[in-house]
Amino acid sequence: MVSVGVIGGGQLARMMTPPALNLGLEIKVLAEAEGSSANLATTQVGDYTHLDVVRAFAKTVDVITFDHEHVPLPVLEALEAEGVKVNPPSKALAFAQNKLKMRKRLGALGLPMPAWAEIQDAAALQAFIDSNGGVAILKTPIGGYDGKGVRVVRSAADASDWLANLPQYGGSLLAEEKVDFVRELAQLSARRPSGEFRAWPLVQTIQEDGVCSVVLSPAPKATKETLKTTAAIARAVADGLEVTGVLAVEMFEARDGRILINELAMRPHNSGHFSIEGSVTSQFEQHIRAVSDLPLGSTEPTTKHAVMVNLLGVDDSNDFVRAYPEALAAHPSAKVHTYGKGPRAGRKMGHVTVVSDDAAFALAEAKGAAAVLLRG
Question: Based on the domain organization, do 354 and 251 belong to the same domain?
């Protein structure tokens, strides 16, 4: 029996567990703490930043993969030097861990991005702002997610705290053009070490306060040219960065018609949760297949439309469970997934998916079920 080891005990590891077991594979998780979301799997607790801890865990499995991208590269490089299979490999994860490295590599590949610059002092930041309409998006190259480590700046003074602490962010900041976009898109795909590649339908993501709120699959009214462009971008990123496993390429559809790469994730991604019910092969099964170098499954949709709505914690008491009877009775088409997390305002606690041949029905049902659950 092949054994897959997942570093990180979050909801992504949790949702990898059922498909791994269905495939007859063993799955183990190295979690950060007791009582993690992924405790459905065989779980041990340890510090993923310590080589000895990760090395001991790796000896119990055949391949290492991830619930997040934060394992230090030197730890992974040491494992790889010892012959451990790591998917995606450290050379790919380097670009997911550092946004400046990502921009430089994507630029070398000739892929479309917002205008950007590496920033190491106030003068450089002000010059970039001035040359980009008086406003810019400033990011910390490392450590940011779900809107954290990102701010809109209109003068260098808006970033004085970050500029005063550059070593904390790897020595530089990343300034980007503030794109005037129509909507945000995500292209999910998967690639195995042998190079086999498959992509899911392009989706539209709707953000609230920097966090994904709703995913629409397929992206409404996407043109043939847009679909061709986004699929080609995903393939170029996967091959050019040698990604193995699931890859999410988040993009802007700009008002001037450009399709621009925003962010990358080299693991199952929030924008792909719809695929559990909405695709022949979910992103979680596909990731397990890909990192184990098994043939990839079909990514064809099961119905015309799928809508996913995130369940974001509203306070420190509502765990949704008490509202199940009402939500499930009122919205029988809804599929509810909870992540086994303690409630906290703004936290991703779960999601609701509805699949249907009617897009409006799917959206209304998913939002309706989510509303019942959120009010508890």
Answer: yes
Q: Which residue range is the domain that position 333 belongs to?
A: 181-375
Asked if residue 109 is part of any domain, the answer here is: no
How many structural domains comprise the chain?
3
Residue 208 has a pLDDT of 86
- Assigned domain for 130 exists: yes
**For the chain, how big is the Rg over CA atoms in Å?**
20
Residue 182 structure tokens: 């129509």
Collapsing DSSP to helix, strand or coil, 373 comes out as helix
Q: Please report the pLDDT score of residue 145 as a whole number.
A: 62
Q: pLDDT per residue over 325-355, tens digit each?
A: 999 999 999 999 999 888 888 889 999 999 9
168 & 192 share domain: no
Structure tokens at 141: 């190259």
Is residue 135 located within the same domain as residue 56? no
- The pLDDT, as a whole number, for residue 15 is 97
pTM: 0.95
Q: Residue 47: which CATH number?
A: 3.40.50.20
Q: What is the pLDDT of residue 125?
A: 96
Three-class DSSP category at 358: coil
Distance separating alpha carbons of residues 363 and 376, to the nearest angstrom: 20
- The Cβ-side half-sphere exposure at 274, using a 13 Å CA radius, reads 37
In which residue ranges of the chain is pLDDT below 50?
A: none
What SS3 state is found at 327? helix
In a domain, 91, yes or no: no
| pLDDT attached to residue 345 | 83
For the chain, the first-to-last Cα distance in angstroms comes to: 42
Query: If residue 200 lies in a helix (H) or strand (E), which one and from where to where?
Result: none
Helix, strand or coil, per DSSP, at residue 7: strand
The pLDDT value recorded for residue 313 is 85
| Side chain identity at residue 375, one-letter code | R
User: What is d(CA 151, CA 309) in angstroms, rounded to the nearest whole number?
Assistant: 25
Contacts of 208 (CB under 8 A, 6+ apart): none
**Where a domain ends, among 66, 86, 106?**
86
